[in-house]
Amino acid sequence: MNPAYLFDIDGTILKVKHKANRKLIQRILERFGINHTEVEELDFAGKTDRDIFSDLLKQPDEDMFHQVKQIYLQELERNLTPDDIHVYSGVHDSLEYLRNKTAWTGLLTGNFARAARIKLAAIGLLEPFRFGAYGDDHHDRNDLPPSAFDELIRQSGEPFKPSDLVIIGDTPRDIACARSFGSIAVAVATGTYSYEELKDCRPDAILHSLEEFPAWNERFMAN
Ligand SMILES: [Mg+2]
Fold first, then answer.
1. For the whole prediction, is pTM greater than 0.85?
2. How many angstroms is it from 36 CA to the middle of ligand 1?
């Protein structure tokens, strides 16, 4: 049986250009009277959207969190264009490669589910991902693999085990969350962490970019 593959989005599949994303968040915070001058410099890598907005809003109540979330998603949908997004090299080829293998391919991302769809739809890459876990409900990335796994079992009806999941991401948090569920951690050095920094976290594999993914997977499957 093929493993199932779970991809992170930001830093792994694509990068929303800094200007577009941070300006949008800053504008929304201002509407709520929050002057967060350091939005430009904050490190969001590997965090869930729920966690990011809870921090920015300084532990909002559920009502305020919900309002800000809805505005963020509306603004993202209205404003995000393909020009705001850079797709990393090797992404299209890796997804095509997995499609040819008829492997189950999903998302494991801190993005709100709708934000994930907006970003991927903008670049025509929504269709390959058949299941996933998202950052709507969870503060901690380590809570995502069990959700994705349950969804995979439900949809596929196949007897996957946690060790049959390959979790692909660009941060130490992605590696830690794969480890926490007993899954395979593949780090890709296209995000804000360098190859050396990721290597120190001891993933099962580390790639300079997803260009190296099909060849790595062939070796992995042969072992
Ligand atoms: Mg990422």
1. yes
2. 23
